[in-house]
């Protein structure tokens, strides 16, 4: 069966995914002080980070419209999947579902399924790769859905950022009773909840200790790592990402390791120096 996987632009695509012909990106958009940025191949991370640093305002994002998803569903592929940023953090999931409804109203039934990643960034990347793996094995549409939903249930997302300001100001940390004072250079180790919201797992003084603490959190929850891909994304700090990779490889072996630089939306939330790990 032919298939297509649409990943909203919070999820980074590897070069292999871009070349495969099976993956498309549904772009979110960002506004910084009135400057409009489409999160696609034209995204310039260095320029974006300069604009954010110079701005007194918090950048804002908007998700793809239902009509945009509907356009992506209108293709020759027999099986179509969308993977979105956690529904707890963005309207992208609801938009993708509405797009499916619009498509079916206009064109009739089609095998379309929307996955709520309950994650972000490389969490979405891994889900896209899992879909492709299942399709290449010749699984039925329903079997792919069941297998990938089970995979999402087992997936864990962790991150350490230089600053939580954008997450705070955009309401992505609602429900957290306290966030440690950045004036003390305390770095919270954050992670995903089973529902796809954000929780604080631990904390440490300084970024190096924060990253080491994150590695401890990852290691404490690792299972069957030889069957899994370790995925790391970073915002303008490749050496930190590699250091995290090396620390984790000292603890376990993995089927593969992916390190990607964050695209637009992930750069907005991770901010300069942020590192995200998904297993």
TrEMBL record:
Keywords: Lipid-binding. It comes from the Bacteria. Pfam families: DegV (PF02645). The keyword Manganese does not apply. InterPro entries: DegV (IPR003797), DegV_C (IPR043168), DegV_domain_contain (IPR050270). One of its GO terms (molecular function) is lipid binding. NCBIfam families: DegV. PANTHER family: DEGV DOMAIN-CONTAINING PROTEIN DR_1986-RELATED, FATTY ACID-BINDING PROTEIN TM_1468. This is DegV family EDD domain-containing protein. It comes from Dorea longicatena.
């Amino acid at each position: 069966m032919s298939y297509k996987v649409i990943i909203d632009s919070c999820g980074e695509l590897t070069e292999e995914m871009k070349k495969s012909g099976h993956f498309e990106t549904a772009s979110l958009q960002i506004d910084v002080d009135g400057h409009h940025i489409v999160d696609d191949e034209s995204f310039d991370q260095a320029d974006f980070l300069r604009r954010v640093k110079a701005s007194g305002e918090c950048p804002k994002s908007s998700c793809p419209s239902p009509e945009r998803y509907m356009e992506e569903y209108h293709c020759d592929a027999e099986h179509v999947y969308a993977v979105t940023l956690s529904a707890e953090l963005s309207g992208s999931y609801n938009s993708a579902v509405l797009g499916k409804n619009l498509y079916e109203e206009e064109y009739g039934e089609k095998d379309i399924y929307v996955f709520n990643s309950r994650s972000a960034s490389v969490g979405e990347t891994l889900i896209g790769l899992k879909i492709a793996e299942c399709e290449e094995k010749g699984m039925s549409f329903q079997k792919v859905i069941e297998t990938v939903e089970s995979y999402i249930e087992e997936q864990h997302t962790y991150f350490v950022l230089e600053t939580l300001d954008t997450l705070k100001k955009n309401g992505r940390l609602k429900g957290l009773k306290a966030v440690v004072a950045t004036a003390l250079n305390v770095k919270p180790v954050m992670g995903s909840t089973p529902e796809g919201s954000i929780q604080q797992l631990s904390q440490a003084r300084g970024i190096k200790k924060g990253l080491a603490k994150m590695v401890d959190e990852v290691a404490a929850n690792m299972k069957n790592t030889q069957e899994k891909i370790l995925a790391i994304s970073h915002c303008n700090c490749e050496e930190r990402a590699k250091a995290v990779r090396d620390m984790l490889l000292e603890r376990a072996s993995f089927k593969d390791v992916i390190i990607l630089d964050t695209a637009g939306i992930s750069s907005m939330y991770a901010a300069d120096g942020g590192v995200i790990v998904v297993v």
